[in-house]
Amino acid sequence: MTDSEKPIILEGLPDTGLVGTISLSHYLVKQSFMRTGYLQTDKFPPMLVIRDGKIGDILEIYYKYNVYIIRSELPIPQEGAHDIIEEIVNWVKGKNPRLFLSLGGIPNPNRLDIADPKVYAVPTNEETLSIVSKMKNVEILSDGLLFGPKALILRKIERLKINGLGLFVQSYLNYPDPGSAAKVLTLLPQIGLEKVEVDSLIASAEEIRMQYRELMRRTDDETRRMKSVPSIAEQSLV
């Protein structure tokens, strides 16, 4: 694993609209991030990932210039969510990050009529609240519920007193949303990350929706399972 000092860690696990997945997949390709690690667990279903003719892993870690990206080819399964999230958070803790940033979507039934989706922030402490206060085009999520892996991660990050921040963009509930993914990418320079072009992401929106159709279906299924489990739902309150 690549050594680093107080890095920024970006997490884009599959969730609403696949906003985090699409945005960080675009970001790591355009910025030429290198794959440096993976999470091995038997909690995922038996599956072999083939990428560019090589065998890959379901949950992978990428790195460049003191920035890590965590991405997954599958949604976190409800049955193993706590164990997998615990592994991820332990890894994050070991890196002693300057900032942990979770990117995701927040469902809006009127998304089709929204040309410029809003971005809502969930800071885990006063330091990240201060970061948000200086950002443009971002609002604090004052009331609401978060379900699933991102909720569990942010809760654990908050309890470990790690500087954590969730950025959630208005998006389609169960439809891949490249537009919202592009919107959140435009905000990254405000927290010290390199700017990335998003025109190609928007231009290939239909192709991206087809590419991520199966992952969106799986993610939607897992989200419904998690919402039906009281113990997880209760811990997912932010």
Q: Strand-and-helix sequence, N→C?
A: EHEEEEEHEEHEHEHHHHH
**SS content category:** alpha/beta
Tertiary shape: globular
Q: Helix fraction?
A: 25-40%
Number of strands: 10
| Major sheet: arrangement of strands | 2-5-6-1-7-10-8-9
What is the rounded distance between the termini? 32 Å
Question: Main β-sheet: number of strands, strand sense, barrel status?
Answer: 8 strands, mixed
Note the total helix count: 9
Oligomer: single chain
Rg, nearest Å: 16 Å
Uncertain runs: 230-238
Residue fraction in strands: 15-25%
**Mean residue pLDDT:** 87
Walkthrough of the structure:
Helix content is 37%, strand content 22%. With 238 residues, the chain is α/β, with parallel strands linked by helices. It has an 8-stranded mixed beta sheet, sandwiched between helices. α3 (126-133) links the parallel β8 (119-123) and β9 (139-140).
How do the helices and strands line up, and which of them pair or pack?
Blueprint lengths: L7 E4 L7 H12 L3 E6 L9 E3 L2 E3 L2 E6 L2 E6 L8 H15 L3 E9 L11 E5 L2 H8 L5 E2 L8 H11 L4 E8 L6 H8 L13 H5 L1 H7 L1 H15 L2 H6 L3
Parallel strand pairs: 1-6, 1-7, 7-10, 8-9
Antiparallel strand pairs: 2-5, 3-4, 5-6, 8-10
